[in-house]
Amino acid sequence: MKQHDVIIVGGGPIGIACGLEAKTKGLSYVILEKGPIVNSLYHYPVNMQFFSSSEKLEIDGIPFISNEAKPKRNEALEYYRRIVTSNQLEIHLFEKVENVEKRDGQFTVISNKDSYTASNVIVATGFYDLPNKMNVPGEDLPKISHYYDDPHFYASQKLAVVGASNSAIDAALECWRKGAEVSLIIRGPEVGQRVKYWVRPDIINRIEEGSIKAYYNSNVKEIRETEVLIDTPDGTVTLENDFVLALTGYTPNFAFLKKLGIALSDDEKKLPQYDPETMETNVDGLYLAGVICGGMETHKWFIENSRVHAKIIMNAILHKNPETVEA
Description:
There is one protein chain. The chain has 327 residues and is an alpha/beta fold. It has 2 domains: 3-130 and 250-324, FAD/NAD(P)-binding domain (3-Layer(bba) Sandwich); 133-246, FAD/NAD(P)-binding domain, CATH 3.50.50. 22% of the residues lie in helices and 24% in strands. Strands 1, 2, 3, 4, 5, 6 and 17 form a 7-stranded mixed beta sheet that branches. Strands 8-15-9-10-11 form a 5-stranded parallel beta sheet, covered by helices on one side.
């Protein structure tokens, strides 16, 4: 097994930023990504537009040019893909990390394809892989999806969208515009306040005019082959239904963090323990980068405010181990 200065788990924008910074600092590294380049972004809806402007999504000072101020998913995929290829980053795709062990001050990283040793490990895995389940009867039916891709699929269908965040509201509007009969099921009293400012008035207007039916202060009670039962303030409502998009958010892989020995807070936030000055966790030589730092508060960290983690971590590694710089 080849010895590395650092292994980066996750090939999203922040993992790529860490790879770029490691290369700049002369550290030997490899990025391990379980899917394609920027796997999470690849699984975003095909028509998604970012809340952030393109310059806030830039990494390592590399310009991100987009057609509009706020880029689309396909533009982001192109941007990060070109960064990886033009900089010849050492990234292994479709290679899932299954375990990380530490012994005698060295990490052994075991994937589904190979094993690696390193003095330091960075976890930059994001949070998009584990959807928050509703835990209701029928949630395992084939008509249910926790991920939204293309509105064309739902044309002329009776669609229930569960959620009040950006993903749910975007899906409701896009599918309605492609001819779906959309019902929106919202746990709280209103559309989420963090919905993109240019989208929120749109969905409110569609609801008020009756184009999209919204059920506030409501929860899915049961999902059946052709129906959805909803608990509402007025009692149980039964909707005719073809498909359900349960866009209720996602959670980090806490089981993986615990397996690595990272301490989590005891409250519902499940904040991982790390030093914000270095991003090092309670495990010596093990660092966190990106949205994974926020625990359940996944809305606190974005590309734009966590891209700095790459420089922080590499500087910390060099400060601890100045001899690791390659000649």
